[in-house]
Amino acid sequence: MISLDGFPAYALDDPRLPIPTLRKLAREGAVASTMKPVNPTVTWPNHTAIVTGVDASQHGVLYNGMLMFPAGGGPPTIEPWRDKELMVRAPTIYDIAHDAGLTTAQVDWVAIYRAKTITWQFPELPDPNGVIERDLISAGTVTPEQLRTFEDSTQAWQDQIWTAAAENILEKHKPNLLLFHLLTGDDTNHEYGPMSHASLTALAFLDDRVKQILDLLQRTHLSRNATLLIVSDHGFRTFKHKIHPNLRLRENGLLSGGPDHPKGDAWVVPEGGTAMVYVTNPDRRAELVPQLRHILTGAEGIDRVYGADEFSTLGLPTRPTNEQAPDLLLAATPDYAFSAESEGSYITQVPEAGTHGYVNTDPKMQAIFIAWGAGIPKGIHLGNISNLDVAPTIAALLGLEMKQAKGHPIEQIVKHQALKTDLEVPRARPSRDAN
Prior knowledge:
single chain; four-stranded antiparallel β-sheet; 15 helices; about 30% helix; about 20% strand; disordered C terminus
């Protein structure tokens, strides 16, 4: 499974977009019109939904990391390098595959740090002493110094190295399941806006990375048994206005201190098109939640304020089940996005850029799903699906089952696989040398 971060479903319909490989896979396999993400429509929560088949109310991941609340009332921070066991509260497809005796691998997947059920990996922050890293060093693909300074490189170069790592894992180790994540599209869409000239170039670059993997599968004859899934985690919107809701809190006496040391009993944490509101002083929660709702309702750029009693309809967790859960959720109107600053003006105008995080019913937030290869019917249009269906579908292709998933195996694919089995054609369940 290859995740093309931030690839909007609507991009597939744009004839200006040069993506011959993705169009070939869609034409020869199965393609969804849209794939609905979960809330919040950001990277880690949706990659976690894709591998668990449940939304954030069950898997528990709300940010691109774990939200931390410092002592003394300072602003919350998001820490990404937390163990998967601490962050993900539901079984993943790679857990289930590993427990069934299959081999698993990941390249730049997220919310997977120190996962015990991954057999081979090349992580987001590679280790020069890692097994796959040493292979790439020996091949002259990368140097130890480049790996030590990996974060300082361009996103496109990182994606090239991650693709080389995926090639190495596939050819040398032949895992039963590989999860592979590329970031250039998301990075470029944030900077220049979706479907800008830069965005079209970035998506074309990603198409070529998919071709690189497809070429390897065909060159090594793995394609005879391999199933290739192409997904994204969310879509994108353009915006020109930033909302600084913490300014409203400061104006109403809920934040104090200067820009270097702000503090307060409540904070708003932005996620692009939505923002999470937290009362960080539990002794004041009953008092401050109604006050915060009053302060923020009807403010410019805020389309709606959701209370915790509405979170279940959004697929979000609530307290005390999950300490990461907010007290309120803010939804932005189109052309507005939330920001974290607590100084300056409430609304600022910015050059057109891109973001996501808007509620998952927004048509612009819909993601892509393409399936090709073993076990996949040819020339099938799947209509609109949910990303909660991906993990159960992978499980079905591997001959496994995800009992706790809210999603279901995609019917057209499962029916096709059942028909192949009835006709005594070899099933898509791989041996050690497949996928």
